[in-house]
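Lab notebook, bench 4. Still working through the backlog of constructs that have no structural model yet. Next entry is a single chain of 380 residues. Request: give me the structure tokens for it.
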Amino acid sequence: MQLRQVVLLVTMCSLSANAQTKPRARDLGVPLEGATGPLNAITDVPGVEVGHRTLTSGDSIRTGVTAVWPRGKQSSDPVFGGFFSQNGNGDMTGTHWLEESGFLDGPVMITNTHSVGVVRDAYLAWLVKNKRSPGTNVFDGGFYTYPIVAETYDGFLNDINGFHVKPEDAWAALEAAAAGPVAEGNVGGGTGMVCYGFKGGIGTASRRVGTYTVGVLVQCNCGSRRQLRIGGLPVGQEIADNPPLASVQHAFRDDTGSIIIVVATDAPLLPHQTKRLARRATMGLARTGSTSGNGSGDIFIAFSTANPHAAAAKGSMNVSMMPNDGLNGVFEAAVQATEEAIVNAMVGAETMTGFAGHKVSALPHDRLTEVLKKYNRVAK
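Model written out:
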């Protein structure tokens, strides 16, 4: 049996190098609204950490795991959170308790469709292995918890039925998590993903709203080539001559696939407000052309890192919240950052050949720039 070769992005150094050497949407002149945080990443929200485990081996393994820790991997303090399913042809475990309790208790983990179970169980084993407990449902001598694990389907480029994601891969993503720049494109859970007929994957972006930050991370695997719009322009139609999928011309013609969107903020939001925030990711997705087709699992989760220790309270406690009339800027930031995160994922992705010789081309940077110039839309 051939030993798998694993690309593992562990250290801050490797993440930073990846982020610095690859251009992002703004580097190519894509016109985008809003003021970003210093990293233009979900990790601009204080405390948030991201880790990837990227698996590539031979001609058939193109997959991985991504982990997003709301307060960092050293913390067991839950955050207020909520989720929204725009189209439910997908999976995000643990959402019943999230909806009931209003707390996101632990990381958000993202992988491929057929590895949700192993990643979920691996997080539980990680807690036991590290003698850690969740922040809710802890009792004398034990605990129970419901990990949040989401997925998109990478079976075109990855041998998805080979079940190549193992518990140690989920552990590696959890432990690799760090603040700072976030690697994008063909990394982590996004390794084998396809977006709008081009290579997709992981992308991130952020926006400043007064003293607060909204950050977004996506694992994009959705849409058809004809739908793709970047900067409001019909980019997919303009680059129609570049075959979407070199080996299977008919695939991904409909809006199929999936996208997972994670929205983080340090603005003080209560659980029902984070659910409202998660809904706004739909509008950022729509800006890139998706109509959330029947075959797409478009599931979004949002959380607020404000109000620490709320889950640990044994009695009444005071929490802070933004007034509803003050949420407009946060909503707008989520829409803008979602749009940019999707484009960043595609700009950061690279052409990939994988399972059964299937090949997916990356979004050509030069052609994208030509389209922007054609419509006089290059950002100043």
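Notes after review: The chain has one domain: 35-313+320-350. The longest helix spans residues 328-348. Flag for follow-up if needed.
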